[in-house]
Amino acid sequence: MEVKRISTGSEPINSFLNGGLETGIITNVFGESGSGKTNFCVQTAAHLAEKGEKVVYIDTEKGFSPERFKQIASKEALEKIVLNEPLDFGQQEEAINSLEEIAEEHDPGIVIVDSMVSLYRLKAKGNQVQEVNQKLSQQLSQLSKIARKNNIPVLVTNQVYSSFDEDSIELVGSDVPRYWSKCLLKLSNSDKSVREIEIEKHRSMPEGKSAQFKITDEGLESVKNRGLF
Ligand code: ATP
Ligand code: MG
């Protein structure tokens, strides 16, 4: 199937990604707390909903704020959001396993999972790690299938932890989300207002390519356009 790029509604993000999020694959946005992962999701959801597309949104940490959504899109657009809020990793698995049915019913333009690993993290302790990793892998495999079958983007977010090397961060779930995500994007804060997005893995763009953006009431906006202030 032809790969299309779906607009996120954010000028700097779209131009960085040559048009937007690719259909048929999982795009994984990772970064430290406060780096803008949820804003990235809400921005994209708001834009697609505003265009009349349904958005399946799995929110595992009460990150989806209707108030924030309405800063970017209209009240009517909010009705296009099919929200699911699993409370534990088992419910997350159920939510992901029911996606084929949900996709048939709603024909969504995107599936978003924010975050893929916050509930996983609560479980992945001690000798359960292998079993929980298998479940995480199964869920990502299912998401990948949904992306391909419906030719839509799947957008997931991923928490990180500092690795031994102080300067670098590693994905929670490490190799599992890394393997399943054909596009890996790292967000970071350069300073309080300027944020950075960087390619960590991509099928057609070089690793290390980066751009800046800022978070405003309107969403993820360009740093340059606003003059000195
Ligand atoms: P976590 O891992 O904790 O979920 P995150 O990566 O999802 O973090 P976000 O919630 O997307 O991070 O980003 C939070 C940041 O966005 C905060 O610094 C907050 O000040 C900023 N922010 C949220 N709304 C606005 C707004 N309307 N204008 C400017 N900045 C905003
Ligand atoms: Mg968040």
Commentary on this structure:
This protein has helices spanning 11-16, 37-50, 66-72, 75-78, 89-97, 99-106, 118-123, 129-150, 175-180, and strands at 5-6, 21-22, 26-31, 55-59, 81-84, 110-114, 154-158, 160-162, 169-171, 183-189, 195-201, 210-216, 219-221. With 229 residues, it is of the alpha/beta class. A hairpin with an 8-residue loop joins strand 11 and strand 12 (210-216). Helix 2 packs across helix 3. The longest helix has 22 residues, at 129-150.
Unreliable spans are none
User: How many helices in DSSP terms?
Assistant: 9
At the first level of CATH, the class is Alpha Beta
CATH architecture: 3-Layer(aba) Sandwich
As for the CATH topology, it is Rossmann fold
> What is the count of β-strands?
13
Give the domain tally: 1
What proportion of the residues form beta strands (DSSP E)? Answer: 25-35%
- Structure ligands: adenosine-5'-triphosphate, magnesium ion
Largest beta sheet: what is the strand line-up? 5-4-6-7-3-10-11-12-13
Helix and strand sequence: EHEEHEHHEHHEHHEEEHEEEE
Overall geometric form: globular
Chain-averaged pLDDT: 94
End-to-end distance: 44 Å
The CATH H-level superfamily is: P-loop containing nucleotide triphosphate hydrolases
Which range best describes the helical content: under 10%, 10-25%, 25-40%, 40-55%, 55-70% or over 70%?
Answer: 25-40%
Q: Over all CA atoms, what is the radius of gyration?
A: 17 Å
Helix-and-strand structural type: alpha/beta
How does the major sheet shape up?
9 strands, mixed
